[in-house]
Every structure is written in structure tokens, then in C-alpha cells.
Amino acid sequence: MGILQRVRRTSSNWVRTSRIRPQRIIAALCLACACALVVWALTPNEAGTAIVVAKTDLAPGSELDAGDLALTDFPPDLVPDKAFSSIAEVEGRHISAGLSEGSPLTESIVLDQQALPEGSRDLLMPIRLADDASAALLQPGQRIRLFSSLPDGGSEVVVEKVTIARLVDKPEGIAAESGQLVSVILSAEDAGRVAEFAGLPISFAILPR
């Protein structure tokens, strides 16, 4: 009888274990799925948008060279508006502000030298600067203050601040006019102010960065 009782108890335990085992398997599967979902949710999305960034620190007015630039993947949510996606789009152009290494290049920073950013209310205006020697210090992207010498002596500030968009190459020969011609970015109000000094010599001072 003792042996039979042991056999019955063993059989009963085996049956209980067999009944519980599928439940344990299902529970383990559910736990594994939950862990997988947590890992998926916490893992950052590696896919990004490639945009042009500064490969090194760049000073205002710098002419962009392919060696100064790189393509870097940015998370889609962090890509700046009007960022460039091709180095060829900006190579050879100038920047209006200084950039630190890794900074994205956007249309508001890169000077077109021919057109203003879309939606801008500023104007492009040609101005002839009186002093050729001093004008050699200028480059696109710099901000300058304009002055004019008055006929009765002294000088007056014409415009507090304009941004140089382009230095126009001077033609050679006897007919070439003296003074460096520059294209500047300024407001409509400041453009009217400059027009009041037409015919008078215009000088400048370079503003700090």
C-alpha cells in the first residue's frame, strides 16, 4: 500500500505541474514582450536628416570652403528651418555671422550676395565708399557704420549699422571711378537716409562682432 500511495502522489504532482507549466510559459512570454516594448520605446531613433554644419569655428564674413563643412545627421525634430542639405549649395558663399564647430548652416546665415532671404523686408543698396585703402579691410558679412563729410566741415552719422553683402570688383582703366562700391543690406528707412547724402563722400567704421 505504501508504494501505491507514493505512485499516486507522484502522479498527482506531475499532473499539477503539467497544468501549471503552460501558464508559466504564457507569463514568461508576456514578460518578454513587455521588456521588448520598453527597450523599443527607450531606444532613440537612429535615423536622422543630414544637414550641413560647420566643421570648425568660422568667423563672420568667412568664405565657405568644402573643407570647412560637413554633413551631420540631426534628429528630424531638431533640424532648423531652411537648413542646407548639400555642401555644394553653400560652397564659395559667405556667412553673415560667426559659427562654432557643429553649428548648422541656414539661409539666414549664408549670404546670397545677390538676393535677400525669402520674406525679408530689408533692401540691397549699392554704396560707394570714399577710401579705397580702408575698404580693402572689408569682407561680406561685416557690419559697418556709415559716416559722411559735410560741405561746411565736420561729419555726420548716416546709418548706425548696415551689413555688407558684396564687394563689387572695380573695373581697371582710366575711366574707373575712385572708391570701393559695396552692396549692403539695410532697412527701407536707412536706405532713404543714405539717399539724402547722395554725392557726398561716405566713410565707414567696422563694428565689433
Explained architecture:
It is built from three helices and nine strands, in the order αβββββαβββαβ. The strands form three sheets. A five-stranded antiparallel sheet has the order 5-8-7-6-9, with helices on one face. A two-stranded antiparallel sheet has the order 1-2. The protein has a two-stranded antiparallel sheet with strand order 3-4.
Backbone structural class:
alpha+beta
Work out the radius of gyration. Answer: 35 Å
Provide mean pLDDT, rounded.
77
User: How does the overall form come out from the CA principal axes?
Assistant: elongated
Strand order of the largest sheet: 5-8-7-6-9
Number of strands: 9
Low-confidence stretches: none
- How far the N terminus sits from the C terminus, by CA atoms, comes to 102 Å
- State which percent range the strand residues make up: 25-35%
Tally of contiguous helical segments: 3
**Sheet of most strands:** 5 strands, antiparallel
Q: Which percent bin holds the helix content?
A: 25-40%
